[in-house]
């Protein structure tokens, strides 16, 4: 099996030495990476490091304000490193008007980025499932008022009290599930490495396999380090796919 990793998982290393972070996640066994910042490193260097490690780029988490500040620069950086997916990692509109404006902004970027060969998607947390001013939640608004694909963070779907497997099925049937975060944690919002929480990780894994949806690992607690968590996570996945024994 091929697994990606969200580099926020190893941010304790990546923010000071991105090259080493790439080399070490590749050595552990990850085959693609999803960036959460480049920490001032030139795109040319990042592309060389990726090639040297044999890593593909599954996407980036890039904030809307980065697009607003330097749209052309963001696009060029993505093109230079060979990245064809840009994922908005977070948004939290507090009013219906803010939600409407957010959806319009994202839809506009989706269209313009598509012309540059870059697909836009949105990554959820738990708050997207809460109604806004008694109306639709951001999650429901995204689904009913836009065609934006969703990178379903399956742990946060679970922490919101929803069923990540059911949502994977629904989003996939609508052609709106390009990739997932496979992630674990407790129902109260505390994250854990894979296999150490209460989220339905194995069911998510089996569903992703059946649907053919790429899996990106994310584990956020840096306990004791990001790399150690990354090792725990890929070992757990390897027990599921039969590569190693439990």
Run of helices and strands? EHHEHEHHEHEHEHHEEEHEH
Strands, count: 10
The quaternary structure here is: single chain
Query: N- to C-terminal separation?
Result: 16 Å
CATH class: Alpha Beta
Number of distinct helices: 11
Enumerate the strands of the largest sheet in spatial order, edge to edge or round the barrel.
1-2-3-4-5-6-7-10
- Global shape: globular
Report the portion of residues in β strands: 5-15%
Task: Note the main attributes of this structure.
globular, alpha/beta, 10 strands, TIM Barrel, two-stranded antiparallel sheet, 246 residues, 11 helices
Description:
The model has no long low-confidence stretch (mean pLDDT 97). The strands form two sheets. An eight-stranded parallel beta barrel has the order 1-2-3-4-5-6-7-10, surrounded by five helices. The protein has a two-stranded antiparallel ribbon with strand order 8-9. The chain has one domain: TIM Barrel (Alpha-Beta Barrel). The chain starts with a strand and ends in a 5-residue tail after the last helix. It has helices at 11-14, 18-28, 43-53, 64-69, 71-81, 96-114, 138-145, 154-159, 164-173, 201-211, 226-241; strands spanning 4-6, 32-35, 56-61, 85-88, 119-123, 150-153, 180-182, 184-185, 191-192, 215-217. Helices cover 46% and strands 15% of the residues.
List the helices and strands and how they pair.
Layout lengths: L3 E3 L4 H4 L3 H11 L3 E4 L7 H11 L2 E6 L2 H6 L1 H11 L3 E4 L7 H19 L4 E5 L14 H8 L4 E4 H6 L4 H10 L6 E3 L1 E2 L5 E2 L8 H11 L3 E3 L8 H16 L5
Parallel strand pairs: 1-2, 1-10, 2-3, 3-4, 4-5, 5-6, 6-7, 7-10
Antiparallel strand pairs: 8-9
Helix pairs in contact: 2-3, 2-11, 3-5, 9-10
């Amino acid at each position: 099996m091929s697994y990606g990793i969200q580099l926020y998982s190893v941010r304790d290393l990546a923010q000071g030495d991105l090259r080493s972070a790439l080399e070490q996640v590749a050595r552990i066994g990850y085959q693609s990476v999803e960036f959460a910042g480049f920490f001032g490193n030139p795109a040319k260097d990042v592309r060389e490091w990726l090639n040297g490690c044999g890593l593909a780029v599954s996407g980036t988490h890039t904030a809307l304000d980065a697009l607003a500040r330097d749209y052309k620069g963001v696009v060029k950086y993505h093109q230079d490193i060979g990245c064809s997916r840009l994922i908005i990692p977070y948004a939290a509109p507090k009013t219906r008007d803010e939600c409407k404006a957010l959806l319009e902004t994202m839809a506009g970027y989706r269209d313009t980025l598509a012309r540059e060969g870059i697909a836009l998607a949105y990554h959820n947390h738990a708050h997207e499932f809460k109604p806004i001013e008694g109306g639709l939640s951001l999650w429901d608004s995204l689904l009913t008022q836009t065609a934006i694909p969703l990178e379903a963070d399956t742990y946060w779907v679970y922490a919101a009290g929803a069923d990540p497997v059911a949502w994977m099925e629904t989003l996939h049937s609508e052609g709106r599930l390009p990739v997932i975060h496979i992630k674990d944690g407790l129902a109260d919002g505390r994250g854990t490495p894979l296999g150490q929480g209460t989220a339905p990780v194995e069911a998510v894994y089996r569903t992703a396999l059946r649907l053919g949806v790429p899996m990106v690992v994310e584990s956020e607690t840096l306990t004791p380090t990001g790399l150690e968590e990354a090792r725990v996570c890929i070992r757990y996945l390897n027990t599921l796919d039969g590569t190693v024994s439990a």
